[in-house]
Amino acid sequence: MATRATLGIILLLTGILLSTAGLAQPRVITVTPYLNAAQQVANWLESLAVDTGNGALAWPISNINQQRLLGLDQGAAGIGRFFVELYRQTGDDAYLDIAISAARYERSQHITGQYNGPDWLAGAAGSGEFLLELYAASGDRTFLQWAEDIAAWHTATALRPAPDENFWLHAPNFPRTYTGIAHGAAGIGMFHSRLYMHTGNPEHLTLAENAYNWMNNYRINLSPNAFGYQRLITDTDIYNWWSGGSAGIMLFQSRMYQITGETRYLDDYRQTANGLLLVARDEAVGQTWRFGREVSNYRPIVYGHGNASVVDALYDAHETAGDQRYLAAADNGAAWIESQVRDFSTQTTGLLFWPHNIGSGGLENLLTTSVMIGTASVGDSMLRFFTRTGNKRWLELALRNADYLLEIAEQPVAGSIRWLNYLGPENPNWDPQQYNTGWYDGNAGIGLFMLAVHRTLTLHGSL
Fold it and tell me: Quick one: which of 195, 320, 394, 410 has the fewest CB in 10 Å?
C-alpha cells in the first residue's frame, strides 16, 4: 500500500514553475499530495491504455473485464475528462494529448454508428459533454464539430409524441424509458443546452426545451406548490436522488433558467426543491431522503443514488432562490451525513470513510470508494458544501476522507496508484471486487476527486 509519507501528505509550499508550449506564461503550481496522487492515477491509467489505431486510445473496464466502452460511465470519455482536468490544473500538454486520443476513440466508434445509446451517463450525450470540455480546454473546433455530429444523431433518433416534445429510447428493444439526468431526457437536454451555450444555434436549445417539456409529463404533485419526478415513465412514485430524480433534474431546470431567463424554469426549480422538503425524514441527527415517499430503512449516503446529491441540490437552491428553508434542510442533511462517517484511523489519526448506505441487510457495511457511488463522492460533495457555505467543517471532512483514500491506495508499481471499487470481503449483492478504470465507479473518478481537493486548497488555502 502507498503511505501518506510516500505521497507527500504534508503540503508542499514551494511553487514549481512549469513552462510548456501550451501556456503563454509560465504557471506557478503549488504541489499538494492530492495533485501528486492524481498524477499517479494518470500513470496507472496510461499503463492500461490500448492503442486502437489512428492515434486513438481506449481502456478496459477493469483488471478483470477487458471490454472497452464509450461514454462517461466506464468508457473513454470518462477517463478523457480526467485527463482534461489534469491538463487544466498542470498545463502539461501530455495530459491533453491523452484526452485527445480518448476523443479519437469515441469518434472512431461514432462514425460507424456505435454510440452505446443516447444517454448522458453511458452514451452519446456524455460523450458530447466530454468533447465540449475538450473543446473548451484546447480551443480546437474539431471537437465542437464532433459534438455537433452527436447532436445531429440525437435529432434524427428522437421520438416526438407532440410537436414540442421529444425523448429517446436506449435501444429498439430496451423496455425502460427514463426521465432524469443519468439515462433520460434531462441528461440529453443538458448536453444540448451546453452545446447551445457554445454555438448559439437555436436548434440545440429547441431540442433541450422539447426534452424538458416531455420530462414534465412525468412529475407527481405533492402539494399545490411542490412536486417530484418519476424515474421511469412506468413508476407510480417519485425518485429523489441525482441518478434519475429530482436532485439531478434540478440541475437541468437551473441550466434552462440561466440560459433563457424564463420564469417557468425557476418556478419548476423551486417547486422541485419544495418537494424535497416535503419528503425529508427526520433522523436522530439531521434529515434524510429515501427512494421516494416510502418509509424505508435504506438510506444511501453517496452522491449518485443517495443523500449527498439531495443536500448539494438544496444548498444550490438556497443560492439560486434565496429561500432559508432550503439552507436549513441542506444543513440538516449534511449533519446526518457527517453523523454516519466512520473513523478508519490506523497509524495515522483522523482518517474518515463513509459507507455506501445505512440500512438494507444485503448492502450493510458496503465500503465503496468511487466519486459517484462511493466514499469519494461524499468527500467531493463536502468540498461543494464548503464552497457554497464557507463552513470549514465540510472542508475538514473532505480532506480527512481524501487522506484515508491516500492511506489505502495500492501501488502496483512505483509512481502509480489505484483503488479497488470497494473494500473488505466480496459482497454477493454487489459487483466483484476489481480495479475499475472509469469515472463513475473507477479510478479516473477518484483522480478527479483528488484534483478537486487540490483545486479547493489552491483557491482557499489550508484549514
Answer: 410
- pLDDT above 60 (res 11): no
Residue 344 CA to residue 337 CA, distance in Å, equals: 16
Hey, which bits of 275-376 come out as E strands? Answer: 281-282, 287-288, 299-300, 342-343, 352-353, 357-358, 367-368
How many helices (H) and strands (E) would you count in the chain? Answer: 14, 16
Cell 490506523 locates to: 346
List pLDDT tens digits, range 386-414: 999 999 999 999 999 999 999 999 999 99
Tally of CA atoms within 13 A in the half-sphere of 71 that contains its CB: 22
**Phi and psi angles of residue 377, each rounded to the nearest 5 degrees, phi first:** -65, -35
What integer pLDDT is reported at residue 346 of this predicted model?
63
Task: Indicate the length of the chain as a whole number.
Answer: 463
Confidence class of residue 19 from pLDDT cuts 50, 70 and 90?
very low
Give me 152's grid cell: 445531429
Which contiguous run of DSSP H or E holds residue 40?
helix 33-48
The average pLDDT across 347-353 equals 78
| H-run or E-run covering 422 | strand 422-423
Q: At what angle do helices 392-408 and 33-48 cross, to 10 degrees?
A: 40
Tell me: pLDDT of 16 over 70.
Answer: no
Cβ neighbours for 414, distance < 8 A, ≥ 6 positions apart:
none
Question: What is the DSSP pairing of strand 219-223 with strand 226-229?
Answer: antiparallel
Cell of 366: 458496503
Question: Backbone dihedral region of 413: left (phi > 0), alpha (psi from -120 to 50 degrees) or beta?
Answer: beta
pLDDT at position 107 over 60:
yes
Phi/psi of residue 316, nearest 5 degrees = -65, -40
Alpha helices (H) along 68-171: 76-90, 93-110, 124-138, 141-157
How many angstroms separate the CA atoms of 32 and 50, rounded?
30
CB of 334 within 8 A of CB of 385? yes
Say how far apart CA 153 and CA 147 lie, in whole Å: 10
pLDDT confidence tier of residue 47, bands split at 50, 70 and 90? very high
**Which residues are CB-contacts of 222 (< 8 A; sequence separation ≥ 6)?**
228, 238, 274, 275, 278, 279, 293
* Closest to 310 (Cα-Cα) out of 285, 339, 281: 281
What single letter denotes the amino acid at residue 208?
Answer: A
CB atoms within 10 A of CB 396: 15
Cell of residue 351, nine digits: 482518517
